[in-house]
Design a protein that fits this description.
The complex is a heterodimer of chains A (about 350) and B (about 300). Chain A is elongated, with a radius of gyration of 24 Å. In chain A, the strands form 4 sheets. In chain A, strands 6-7-8-3-9-10 form a 6-stranded mixed beta sheet, sandwiched between helices. Chain A has a 6-stranded antiparallel beta sheet with strand order 13-12-11-14-20-21. Helix content of chain A is about 25%, strand content about 35%. With about 350 residues, chain A is an alpha+beta fold. Chain A has 8 helices and 21 strands. Chain B has 14 helices and no strands. In chain B, helix 5 packs across helix 12 and helix 11 packs across helix 12. Chain B has a single domain, classed as MetI-like fold (Orthogonal Bundle), CATH 1.10.3720. Classes of the chains: A alpha+beta (about 350), B mainly alpha (about 300). Chains A and B meet through strand 6 and helix 2 of A and helix 11 and helix 12 of B.
Chain lengths: ~350, ~300
């Protein structure tokens, strides 16, 4: 278990990279830290590793307080974005390096390295140098080095982002299976929301050194607690439109939508994912009217951008149903898929329990 | 003649002439000031040429007599041994180790501490050697010396009692800047994630140096050691402090040659020893060139399978 209490990190010059974070990560959990660059996610990971010292607050790993314990004594293994393999050592020596520092006898550590390597299908490459390996192989050697020393926690700093797109999908599946088998608590930093949704048991979305939401991928995707999370999660950006609630209806960008329960009258922001919109060729009261500005091919579907007065509204339509650019169209949000925000907090549907801790 | 008639001369014909024309002045300069003196030194080394007296007017070729005399000479062998001490003490141990240590300590620093340290070390390097020598005489002087005032040891004659340590420390102080800058640049090329991986594995500072830093900067270390050894081997600035004294106890080879050839007037003998020094320099130079070549072949990328 990894626990944080009031963790704050202020860099010289007054930049608050971490701003009073509280978090508990359960044993064996695959936990993703997600956010745009500069949000503090890597700083948080490095602080857990002990490579950065927090300005205030405390860290526990496995029930022991480690706030002032040096990184080498925290019993965690980190995989860096550039893999950080020692170029002058062969694969065996790289995997066995942490064991060598712990003075495990040569025969034992080489046996352990070989065993770990076979698990990660690296057996053929044991005597190669990192410079003779492909990117995917290097990534697996870095993983093997982390696995071989049986740490209490894995810390991954964007380990997939240097792989090309197809390999990244394979490595992602592989990583998830490996973590399931080993059942070691894992903290994973990524800026790719798709990666976080696919891998993690829980996700913490970060912005400006704070968690904007902590929850399961389903919670974070279906009920983003605020407009930042709403805009950040999802492969196509969510439509977020200002409007008003009153007289038993929502009035948003020319559309009159049914008022969900629990929404008080007043100004709101209405959010709906492009995937949850349908296009109608005929006018409807509960639709956003607009002119088709751009049609982007997504392969199995098309992303249609409508110009509607001062707003741009996006909808995903299935193959073959795409309108041509310049025609009028009406985008209808599917019932029950709209999200209503007031003062940047989700008011409808009612937020899931355990959010915004 | 055809070139005069043909409108623009074809470049293939013109190029060798033009190239030679550009290179010739430099070649002449090198010939006059480097090759000729070197050959002249070899010739002089085979004669009994002197600054004054009969041999000055009519030098005789004496063959390898100067060399056998030098190798049998107590003073030459003593000087050679002092030079080895000087090179090992001030260059290899002093400048390289101190330069690396400063670069290592300052590697993550920003701001005034780094700038002031670097500025001071660099200052020692860029001052003219005559100025530096005067500063050191003032520092180490027996009667009014700054060091004696600082240590409350009035009357300690550093230059007389400890001439070798004095010039070794002097040369360390003077030459550390180069090593510091070279290692500073080398260290900034070590990926931080490698050091952090070692730290996370629990490696001590020494283990980090052994497993991460040194393998990464091996080429820089060799280059540095070769260059500063070569420079220190030929360094003459200590002459301005001790002039080889007292009693030849700090007479390293360049100073020895000067004392023998110019003060003592034995130009032929001095030339012979200069040639021996040249041979040692050649060994360094060849080692350095080989190293550069092997690094260049290492640097060609290996294809990843």
């Amino acid at each position: 278990m990894i626990a944080l209490r009031g963790l704050t990190k202020e860099f010289p010059g007054g930049v608050r990279a971490l701003d009073g974070l509280d978090l508990e990560i359960a044993d064996g959990e695959f936990f993703a830290l997600l956010g745009p660059s500069g949000c503090g996610k890597t700083t948080l990971l490095r602080t857990i590793a002990g490579l950065e010292t927090p300005t205030s607050g405390n860290i526990w790993i496995g029930g022991t307080e480690v706030t002032s314990v040096p990184p080498g004594k925290r019993d965690v293994a980190m995989v860096f974005q550039d893999y950080a393999l020692f170029p002058h050592m062969d694969v065996t020596a790289n995997i066995a390096y942490p064991l060598r520092i712990r003075k495990v006898p040569r025969s034992r550590r080489e046996a352990r390295a070989a065993e770990t390597a076979s698990r990660l299908s690296l057996s053929e490459l044991l005597s190669r140098r990192p410079g003779q390996l492909s990117g995917g192989q290097q990534q697996r050697v870095a993983l093997a080095r982390a696995v071989a020393c049986h740490p209490r926690a894995f810390l991954f700093d964007e380990p997939l982002s240097n792989l090309d797109a197809r390999l990244r999908l394979e490595a992602r599946t592989f990583l998830k299976r490996l973590q399931r088998e080993l059942a070691v608590t894992t903290v994973f930093v990524t800026h790719d929301q798709g990666e976080a949704l696919a891998l993690a048991d829980r996700i913490a979305v970060m912005s400006a050194g704070r968690f904007t939401q902590v929850g399961t991928p389903t919670e974070v995707f279906q009920r983003p607690a605020n407009t930042f999370t709403a805009a950040f999660i999802g492969s196509t950006p969510m439509n977020l439109l200002p409007g008003t609630a009153g007289d038993g209806a929502l009035r948003v960008a020319g559309a009159v939508l049914p008022l969900p329960g629990g929404v008080p009258d007043g100004p709101i922001v209405y959010g709906v994912r492009p995937e949850y919109m349908d296009l109608s060729p005929t006018p409807r009261a509960d639709a956003f009217a607009g002119k088709v500005a751009v049609v982007e091919n997504l392969g199995t579907a098309h992303l249609v951008t409508l110009e509607s007065r001062e707003h741009l509204i996006q909808a995903v339509v299935p193959e073959g149903a795409e309108p041509s650019a310049g025609t009028a169209a009406w985008a209808v949000p599917r019932p029950g898929r709209g999200l209503v925000y007031r003062d940047d907090r989700l008011v409808s549907p009612s937020p899931a329990n355990g959010e915004n801790r | 003649m055809s070139r005069l008639k043909g409108a623009p001369s074809p470049p293939s014909a013109a190029r060798p002439v033009g190239t030679a024309g550009f290179v010739l002045p430099a070649l002449v300069l090198i010939g006059v000031f480097l090759v000729f003196p070197a050959l002249w030194t070899i010739y002089l080394g085979l004669t009994d040429y002197r600054l004054t007296g009969l041999e000055a007017a009519d030098p005789r070729v004496v063959g390898l007599d100067n060399y056998t005399a030098a190798l049998g000479d107590e003073r030459f062998r003593g000087s050679l041994w002092l030079t080895v001490q000087f090179v090992l003490g001030s260059a290899v141990i002093g400048q390289a180790v101190l330069g690396f240590a400063i670069a290592w300590v300052l590697r993550d620093r920003r701001g005034p501490v780094k700038r002031v340290t670097e500025g001071l070390v660099l200052l020692a390097w860029i001052l003219p050697s005559s100025v530096v020598a005067f500063l050191w005489i003032a520092l180490l002087d027996r009667d009014e010396g700054t060091l004696n005032a600082l240590l409350h040891t009035p009357g300690a004659a550093w230059l007389l009692d400890h001439p070798m340590p004095s010039i070794i420390v002097f040369n360390v102080w003077r030459g550390t800047a180069f090593s510091m800058m070279l290692y500073g640049a080398a260290l900034s090329n070590v990926p931080p994630s490698l050091l952090e991986t070692a730290r996370l594995a629990g490696a001590s500072t020494l283990q980090q140096l052994r497993d991460v830093v040194l393998p990464h900067i091996k080429g820089h270390v060799l280059t540095n050691l070769l260059l500063i050894s070569l420079w220190t081997f030929n360094d003459f600035s200590t002459f301005q402090i001790t002039a080889g004294g007292p009693d030849g106890r700090s007479e390293i080879l360049p100073v020895y040659i000067y004392n023998v050839a110019l003060s003592g007037g034995r130009l032929g003998f001095g030339a012979a020893i200069s040639f021996l020094v040249l041979l040692v320099n050649l060994v360094f130079a060849v080692a350095y060139l080989r190293l550069l070549r092997s690094r260049r072949t290492d640097a060609t990328p290996k294809a990843a399978p």
